[in-house]
Amino acid sequence: MKRFTFAGAPANSSGKPGGTEHAPDALRDVGLMAAMNSGHAKDLDTLMRGARRDQASGLVALEGVIEATLVLRRRLGQLIEDDQMPFVAGGCNAVLPGAMAGARDGLARGTALGLVSVSGHMDLYDGDTSPDGHGASMALATTLGRGPRAWGALLGDRAPVKPEDVAMVGFRDREEADRADALMPEDFQPHLGAYDLDHIRSVGAAATARAVLGRVAGPGTKFWLHINVDVFDEMVFPAANHLMPGGLDWDDAAPLLRPLVTSPALIGLSLCGYVPSRDEGSSCGLHLVDLFRTLCS
User: Fold this and answer.
1) Distances from the Cα of 222 to the Cαs of 89, 114, 235, 264, 268, in angstroms?
2) What pLDDT shows up at residue 1?
3) Cβ 182 vs Cβ 125: under 8 Å
4) Residue 90's beta-bridge partner residues?
5) Chain CA centroid to CA 16, Å
6) Which among 9, 113, 38 is positioned nearest to 296, based on CA atoms?
7) Dihedral of CA 194/198/201/203: which sign?
8) Per-residue pLDDT at 198
């Protein structure tokens, strides 16, 4: 069994208290750390406050996003450099750019970094196209160097990951994002690896996992796995930050995720989008515990 280091990242890029920022404590309370045989690092100072949308960047809670990103980059880089495998318990998707910059910083020189984003949304908006200005909606675009400049500048002189080393899995918001003029996977050169929900339904979860690993886990490459619980159908996981019909169910999760979690190329993992206040009886949290016990066994 792999041993992760659990690091809470209580972030909510809406700038308001509550919501996803309570997820790290809730996940500990339902036993996720024990299920994963996880060590514990101090929770990160990633609170984001302020409802004003910055005119220049298009980001809500800009100062909080900046501070959280710097904290994530510094701390996760240290953990990886010390040969630990971070499990970042968000929080919202806005933790991704800082996590990826930290992973890049912590890797041995000459090792390439890949990313697998398992999410119901593509998160390829920028400061102009995002409908709400929340960093979560711009997280992947920023990680690829196509988000707000004020945010991307915190990630170093180059983007943490290249388009050819990215796999987007399980998304189902292409039409909505296209109407808003967000970036599309084919707007990048080379194109992003796009394995949407229809692809998973067509070829199966296990075959999708094999294809994804073929893209991001080649020789000399490590990858980060980012999971947003909105990849699940809203009836399956009603405690997600953004509810959407038609997503994955629990039977899809293990064959899709276990090959990724057990891959020797995995360098870290983030779990985002869980809202404990919507989770009556902690049912969704307990399902996550059962899922990760299976994935890590």
Assistant:
1) 20, 6, 34, 8, 9
2) 66
3) yes
4) 9
5) 20
6) 38
7) negative
8) 97
- What are the boundaries of each domain within the chain? 5-296
Cα–Cα distance, 85 to 190 (Å, whole number): 29
Which tens digit of pLDDT belongs to each residue from 12-56?
999 999 999 999 999 999 999 989 888 887 899 999 999 899 999
pTM summary value: 0.97
User: How far from the centroid of its chain's Cα atoms is residue 6's Cα?
Assistant: 15
The CATH homologous superfamily of the domain defined by 5-296: Ureohydrolase domain (3.40.800.10)
Q: Please tell me the predicted confidence (pLDDT) of residue 37.
A: 82
256: tokens are: 């899709």
**Is the bond leading into 91 cis (omega within 30 degrees of zero)?**
yes
- Tell me, letter by letter, the H, E, C secondary structure of 208-260: HHHHHHHHHCCCCEEEEEEEEHHHECCCCCCCECCCCCCCECHHHHHHHHHHH
| Inter-CA distances, 49 with 61, 70, 129, 136, 237, Å | 6, 16, 22, 14, 27
Residues of the chain with pLDDT under 50: none
Which amino acid would we find at residue 189?
Q
DSSP bridge pairs for 232: 248
What tokens does 228 get? 């947003």
